[in-house]
Amino acid sequence: MREPLLVGLDIGTTATKAAVFDGGGRLLAAATAAYPVHRPRPGWAEQDPQDWRDATAQVLRELGRSCDLTGVAALGLVSQVNTHAFVDASHGALGPAIVWQDQRCAAVAAELDARFSAADRERIWGGPFTIDASYLVSRAAWFAEHGAWARTRWVLLPKDLVVADLTGQVTTDPVSAVGLTGPDGYLGEAVELVPGLGERLPPLAEPAAVVGRIGSGRWGLPAGTPVVAGTMDAWGNLYGSGAVGVGDGMLVCGTSEIAAVVSDRIVPTFGVIAFPPRDGLIVHAGPTQAGGDALRWWAQAQGRSIAAVLADAATAPPGAGGVLFLPHLAGQRAPLWDADVRASFLGVSADTTGAELARAVLEGVAMSAREAFDAVAAAAGVPVRGVAVSGGGARSDLWCQIKADVLGRPLGRLAVADSAVLGAALLGGVGVGVYPSMAAAAAAAVRVEREFAPSPDGAALDELYDVYRAAYQALKPVHAALAQTRN
């Protein structure tokens, strides 16, 4: 009997990725389709939802050309979250989707956030929670004033829009509805902040629940293929990283850095997202605003390829000759949640080389990752057993070593770099019974390819990290003043 095949799909910020795996997690075929993020105004970030649809069809068809997909057991999906498409009853977009990096709603978010005391946050969200510009309630309040709110039937995440296209079913999962759900469903006090929002939210389904089947073969998969609800990319990364037990840690090096630790408790910590308990486990997560995106920006600014920038950085010493980079190109999320802060180089002199600037970018991103990881580890309140690292940035040996040195922790690079795609496939496998649980799926399919231990360079970078944190605090009023000139 043929071993079941599983297809995973990750609708990301810069591209949609898909892959076919066997039950042991062996990669059989993969495909990627890129698309742009549009930035029509300072602080804005948008995408055309049609790009997600077209990219999905492209990558699934490409898989079919590389691999026999007859009898695929299931399709699992994950996607970027806090990226919102406002659509009508026919799932037609009523404007560009607002991407998670977008800061247009910062003022709206600040006004909403000011309404809640610490006690309110504990009652509603179970601990510290910050309403920021990427939160759906902030977006809905803005769209109700500036968009086609009356024609809006659904507010959908990228994966939810694609699932609706694939199966005709509108749904989302409680994990992806960040800050909107609790053990009993949607949080009424949060949803009611915007009149009419509740009726525009999709029904909830568990991430591994089969919510429909592909209605036709035009997508590149056989008609009738089961499709699960899916979840957010960070949770796909967790599953694809094998981070499914207390003390498991994860660092995803994608467009942003995502740090997470699995725990069985909550230690209230500012700036950390603590997801509602699932199977007795609590995931503490901290997404930054710019990880690989900072490297992309620097390469583009220099008119060079990312590979060339990485090669330059490898020739510079640890500490980048005393140059420090704060990678806050579009504000910062965890653990600062500061929409006003912007990126900067510090310590640049007439002797500074391009190689030192390149290395400073890599080290600055690593420091933002440490800041997020230290916060989630504190919130988890348990010893961290190990940190699995994945994502496009993890393909660089240099960057993995820098992050191990800055974090002061061993990192295990995964055999499957696109851990969210693998996690999506495993969700599908659980949904149709290939695996009895996500823990069993991870045990069967996730493998570490290489370990990176902290080196002696870490001591110097540890001192630089203290300067990094002090620099943010010192420049905070400067960035707040500059923000007024942008508004």
From TrEMBL:
One GO term (biological process): D-xylose metabolic process
Domain Carbohydrate kinase FGGY C-terminal: 250-430
Keyword annotations: Carbohydrate metabolism, Kinase, Transferase, Xylose metabolism
One Gene Ontology term of the molecular function aspect: phosphotransferase activity, alcohol group as acceptor
Top-level lineage group: Bacteria
A Pfam family of this chain: FGGY_N
PROSITE patterns: FGGY_KINASES_2 (PS00445)
SUPFAM superfamilies membership: Actin-like ATPase domain
Carbohydrate kinase FGGY N-terminal domain: residues covered: 6-234
Family statement drawn from the similarity comment of this UniProt entry: Belongs to the FGGY kinase family.
Protein name (database record): Carbohydrate kinase
